[in-house]
Amino acid sequence: MMNMLTSNRKGVLRNCPICEKLFSDTGIGVCQKCYDKMRNYETQINEFVKTHPHCTVKDIVRQTKIPLRFATNMINKGQFVAGGKISYPCSRCGKAITSGLYCGSCMAKVHEATITAKKLEAERRVKDEQERIKRKYLQKKESGLNILKILRGEK
């Protein structure tokens, strides 16, 4: 079975989201140079986490000099082979968390906001349907009146 990097798949020309250079994307999503750099970052972070299992994302960035955005993204995806707990800031409030994007209280607020948004959307749809039915009724009523006017000889 062929590896994705060595397959015969035709690439799609894209700009690398990291360095913005044009490259032929065969499924990796970034150019080869940035892919190699990311793999190197992953190795460095994994080695650091193995030796410092209860570190924070700030510790990782400070000691490895790897960009915060990359380290946080890697942690959020759970890409570590080490068994330690790594803390990083909640995406909403900044509280230290060890998994996911949000802390428990922010996750509850996001869930509540989602429920509210769905409820408002359902109410809007009901209102739109009621307006549609009302317009249809008024059109029928008006057309009925027009027929009576025509029968009476009125314009």
Q: Topology, pairings included?
A:
Layout: E1 12-15, E2 22-25, H1 32-51, H2 57-64, H3 68-76, E3 88-89, E4 96-97, H4 104-152
Antiparallel strand pairs: 1-2, 3-4
Summarize the structure.
The chain has helices at 32-51, 57-64, 68-76, 104-152, and strands at residues 12-15, 22-25, 88-89, 96-97. With 155 residues, it is mainly α.
How would you characterize the overall build of this protein?
- The protein is mainly α and 155 residues long.
- 55% of the residues lie in helices and 8% in strands.
- It has four helices and four strands, in the order ββαααββα.
- It is elongated, with a radius of gyration of 29 Å.
